[in-house]
What does this fold into?
Amino acid sequence: MILRLARRWEVALLLLLVAEILIFGLINPRFLRPASLLFGTSDFVHIGMVAVPLTLVIIAGGIDVSFASTIGLCAICFGLAHHAGAPVPLAALAALAAGAAAGLFNAAMIRATRLQPLVITLGTLYLFSGAATVLSGLIGAQGYEGIGGFPPGFTALGYATLLGLPLPLLTFLVLSALLAILLHASRLGRLMVLVGQNEDAARHAGLPVDRVQALTYVLTGLAAAVTGLMLTAYFGAARVDLGSATLLPAVTAAVLGGASIYGGSGSVVGTVLGVFLIGYLQQGLQMSGVPTQVSAALAGALLVAVVAARQVGALLRDRLPPRRLLAAGRQFGGPPAVQTESLGGGEER
It folds into this structure.
């Protein structure tokens, strides 16, 4: 059991995260301060807010890159509703409705056109961004100017703490826990995996493929809305470009966490660890005096190296003898005849 646990990708990511924190702590002891580790997460947990539901989309065999614009669109909808006189809770509901509608629109377009999800969501990435810009212009906010004037009680949420944790971090952890339960401990989560592994077989088996995939896009839209609200409170203004910097880091965190781009595999825990790995890497490099451009390149190099190592490990496991089959054979009177290339090119063992 211990050996099986040690082989899990999440354990490797956890060890890599611990090593990363210790290395940056040796370079700059301020990095290891609890306040730095906790409150520094406010600079990158918004990436995880969309990376975790994006993992569900990828597991179910899809992809969504429009969330980067959905964040800004929902923030603008919130700002417009509040500017029109709606109280903050009602304006927040308008933002959530906009996020759900954006996710549902993506799912409907993918189902209607049968085009690749990447093509559709790449188009809606620009569509939602343009819509947000037009809507912000309705009240005279030109270009990427923000909509401000929110109550102090709302903007204070961006810096509030609860149970000793920053509220953005706590929100991210709660969302991750809920989606982890959905994926790993529910029938819907099993359906996501089955649909992602083989969509055609799932359709022939009578599984609700379209509904399962549509739900993942709606969840991503809702998470983008929550992210937009969180960033609006953090910066004190609703802006079109609030989510523009989340696209590549969120996709990187999902892939780094173990989500297969071919669908059918991945985990919420892996994505969460990937978010912290990328976030602390950027912060550690900045505190070490490394320029932003260099830190971005190193983050990309880390992704390539880790994913390549994972692929090599998978290939090595495929070439190993089927130990379970051999053990079963010994239990029932000797090992069965197994053809293995690694044991002599077809020789019986």
